[in-house]
Amino acid sequence: MTPWEISGRELVNCTCTYGCNCQFNGLPDKGHCHAVAGIQIDTGHHGKVKLDGLRLAAIFKWPGAIHEGNGGARAFVDETAGHQQRDALLKIMTGQDTDPFATMFAVYASTVTKMHAPVFTKIELALDIDGRKGRIFVKDYIETQGRPLRNKVTGAEARAQIALPDGFEYTVAEIGSASTKTTGPVRVEMEDTYGQFARLHLNSHGVVR
């Protein structure tokens, strides 16, 4: 197994309401799970291959709860990545070179039965974790906008966090709202649903704490 490690930031939008039942070992509140994610790798490596500054994105579509499987997915890899970097990123995203179920990449890959061919393209990301603001844009495929939660009475920004000391993705996530529309073979659409803003530090064995 080739060791790898990445530190970075992410924005995730899924179909659940704010909070996302999956974060609490519950079932998706819509009965299915559709999700989009964008990740900025600030520093990282896969073996001797450096991954600093590269970006990833993905679309997922499960007909039921994630653990029930039968999901469809498509991965997007930064067009600036070289051949070795592309290979390394796809291995990480599909759960290879990783302890079983140690990261969200490995967990999700195990539940996908239709993995569409990856797309190597420009990925635009704007990620303000503390401000709960972000954007994922992949031309012809993804448009996601993330924003802070708002008080229903005053309209003021509201802040909430989820802490998962034993999670497989993050330690603490800022929670906001997000909306997404995708095109292509994996189509999803969400409006003002769960938005997750988190700092990531992962390696072959899981979350680095």
What assembly state would you assign to the polypeptide chains in this entry?
A: single chain
Broad structural category? mainly beta
* Total number of strands: 15
The percent of residues in helical segments reads under 10%
End-to-end Cα distance, whole Å, is 21 Å
Please provide the ordered H/E string of secondary-structure elements: EEEEEHHEEEEEEEEEE
Radius of gyration: 16 Å
**Count of helical stretches:** 2
Largest sheet: 13 strands, mixed
**Which residues sit in consecutive blocks of at least 5 with pLDDT less than 50?**
none
Shape: globular
Q: How big a fraction of the residues is strand?
A: over 45%
Instruction: Tell me the domain tally.
Output: 1
Average pLDDT, all residues: 97
Architecture overview:
The protein is mainly beta. The model has no long low-confidence stretch (mean pLDDT 97). Strands 1, 2, 3, 4, 5, 6, 7, 8, 9, 12, 13, 14 and 15 form a 13-stranded mixed sheet that branches. Helices cover 8% and strands 51% of the residues. The two termini are 21 Å apart. It has two helices and 15 strands. It has one domain (4-207). It is globular, with a radius of gyration of 16 Å. The longest helix is centred in the middle third of the chain and has 11 residues, at 83-93.
